[in-house]
UniProtKB/TrEMBL annotation:
Keyword field contains Metal-binding: no
PANTHER family noted in UniProt: GALACTOKINASE-RELATED, MEVALONATE KINASE/GALACTOKINASE
GHMP kinase C-terminal domain sequence ranges: 444-516
The protein's name in its UniProt record: Galactokinase
UniProt keyword Cell membrane, yes or no: no
Pfam families in the cross-refs: GalKase_gal_bdg, GHMP_kinases_C, GHMP_kinases_N
Domain Galactokinase N-terminal: 13-62
Alphabetical keyword list: ATP-binding, Kinase, Nucleotide-binding, Transferase
Domain GHMP kinase N-terminal: 151-235
Biological process, per Gene Ontology: galactose metabolic process
Cellular component GO terms held in the UniProt record: cytosol
GO MF annotations in UniProt: ATP binding; galactokinase activity
Similarity comment: family membership: Belongs to the GHMP kinase family. GalK subfamily.
């Protein structure tokens, strides 16, 4: 989406019509498709997403303060959405006491009370669009404005949102909203301007800190997510995917995809003739992050981290920097070591989960210490998250009868390995200067195979697929894809398939004819649910006055 596009101009005009002045700034943040590496970002293993062309745009401007500022609450917001179903919202941050330093997760029990800016983020019964706007604002308020200081106050803001990333579809509309909102509030408060940076009292924001801030902000909506979506939305560039790793710190490497000719990267321009694209297809099962998916997602986080704890003695766990080769051989070893998590004597078709008691015993920790480390973050956030849903999530996890440590760990280590193999295939292919058609087909075949193995593991081992996603990936293979898998958290949402660029139309035609929910869709309605995409550029913003 280019700043001079029609959608951009329409948004600016509509802002002017609604608020009586042009927007000062337009923030853009794209959704993302994850090509491979599912449910491993929160275990800090590398993932392989790319930003998509579909995005969220937020036009915004400071609202003039009334002549008597003492009658005026600082930082009030009027948020509107171009989409008719999302109603106009007005909200004002309040100051409230909280425990310990703002933003700290592990606050000691005797921590002092400090003030924090607070916004009521309420996602109880349905996804509320403004919750994501508030989540972005939350971080900006608490990072840049001392709640008890009178000299520097957040200014009132009007904003207008439009989005083309389908919600609840695994393409990360949520991260796109949070990143765009974070940028919008930084910009309207003058925190992105050179002048403000030079003043010294306000901090400049790097892409890395924007990712970290957006991650923290998105957790306020209730999912203990990793950082893949926010990194992809912020750091991506057109034509390449990203290898994002989180250990020992967040880093992103641009990796050219076969057939693309990235400009300005360290990799040589490939003279390949074959070009492949990724086709996103929405299963039309909404992955409901508000209740069920959130509990399932958070349960996976607990199982994955508890399994890692139990396996830790097998690892050189203190390692700081680790090369890709070391990581690869470590993962190969862990994929074997993981067998110790299999309940003794378990055979084909047996229950592979263990009870809470066994899980705690294996961890070598006392019950209280275990719950403190692995479960307290679920209820530890009760103060800042929608109360009811944190409780549901907590009790559902505490009352789960079996924890699938073996299956979840097996998925995590094998999936992390597949990501490294996928990266390696792409890098090797980009070094071919004049590849033959056979060599190119073989590369796409290898990538497709890894995607299929990932789908198999997500479906059978990690249990984050659903019948419709299994069906849609199977149909994609029948329609000629090199590989196909679910993308995002799963349990609904989109699949991503690797398809020869010249075959896209026939591929879409075949999937439409075979997947029942698509049969009656034509034109724009069909394009809304199944579309080809190439890696697009990451978040940006433009002053518009
Ligand atoms: P989606 O479902 O696209 O929101 C979620 C997490 C990611 C990652 C994937 C699974 C959030 C915000 N994002 O993505 O961090 O863990 O699931 O790979 O919850
Ligand atoms: Mg999301």
């Amino acid at each position: 989406m280019h700043p001079s596009s029609k959608r951009w101009d329409n948004l600016a005009q509509e802002f002017k019509a609604r608020f009586g002045r042009p927007p000062a700034y337009i923030a853009r943040a794209p959704g993302r498709v994850n090509l491979i590496g599912e449910h491993i970002d929160y275990a800090l293993f590398g993932v392989f997403p790319a930003a998509i062309e579909r995005d969220i745009l937020i036009a915004c401007a400071p609202r003039p303060v009334p002549s008597d500022p003492s009658t005026h609450a600082p930082g009030s917001v009027i948020a509107e959405n171009l989409h008719g179903k999302y109603k106009r919202q007005a909200f004002t941050p309040t100051r409230r006491p909280t425990l310990g330093p703002v933003g700290k997760e592990d606050v000691p029990k005797d921590a002092v009370h400090v003030e924090e800016w607070h916004l009521d983020i309420d996602n109880k019964d349905e996804l509320k669009w403004e919750s994501y706007v508030k989540a972005g604002y939350y971080g900006v308020l608490n990072h840049y404005f001392a709640p008890n200081e009178t000299s520097l106050h957040p200014i009132p803001v009007d904003l207008l949102v439009t989005g083309s990333v389908p919600a609840g579809s695994g393409l990360s509309s949520s991260a796109a909203m949070v990143v765009a909102s974070t940028l919008a509030f930084l910009a309207t408060n003058g925190l992105l301007e050179e002048e403000a940076i030079k003043n010294g009292n306000l901090k400049a924001i790097t892409k890395g800190s924007l990712v970290e801030m957006s991650m923290e902000n998105e957790r306020r909506v209730g999912v203990n997510s990793g950082g893949m979506d926010q990194a992809a939305s912020v750091i991506s560039t057109a034509n390449s995917a990203l290898y994002v790793s989180f250990f020992p710190r967040l880093s992103a490497e641009r990796i050219p995809l076969p057939g693309s000719s990235p400009i300005g990267t360290q990799y040589p321009k490939s003279s390949s003739t074959k070009s492949a694209v990724f086709v996103c297809a929405n299963s039309l099962v909404v992955s409901d992050k508000v209740v069920h998916a959130r509990t399932r997602y958070n349960l996976r986080v607990v199982e994955t981290l508890a399994a890692a704890r139990i396996l830790a003695p097998e690892l050189d766990a203190d390692k700081g920097e680790i090369s890709v080769d070391e990581l690869k051989s470590g993962l190969e070893r862990m994929a074997r070591e993981v067998e110790v998590l299999k309940p003794e004597g378990a055979g084909e078709g047996d229950e592979l989960g263990v009870t809470m008691e066994t899980m705690i015993e294996w961890s070598g920790m006392g019950e209280e210490a275990f719950k403190d480390v692995y479960l307290s973050w679920v209820d530890g956030k009760l103060c800042s998250l929608p109360f009811i849903h944190s409780l549901i999530s907590f009790f559902a996890i505490v009352e789960a009868t079996h924890f699938q440590l073996y299956n979840r760990a097996k998925h995590v280590y094998t999936e992390a390995l597949r990501v490294l193999q996928f990266r390696e295939v792409c890098l090797t292919a980009s070094s071919y200067l004049s590849p033959s058609e056979e060599a190119e087909t073989a590369v796409l075949g290898e990538l497709g195979k890894l995607m299929n193995e990932s789908q198999e593991s997500c479906s059978r081992v990690f249990d984050c697929s659903c019948p419709e996603l299994d069906e849609l990936t199977r149909l994609a293979m029948e329609a000629g894809a090199y590989g196909s898998r679910l993308t995002g958290a799963g349990w609904g949402g989109c699949t991503v398939s690797l398809v020869d660029e010249t075959q896209v139309d026939s591929f879409i035609g075949k999937v439409k004819a075979a997947y029942p929910p698509y049969r009656d869709l034509e034109g724009d309605a069909l394009h809304e649910v199944i579309f080809a995409t190439k890696p697009s550029s990451g978040a940006c913003g433009e002053s518009s006055s």
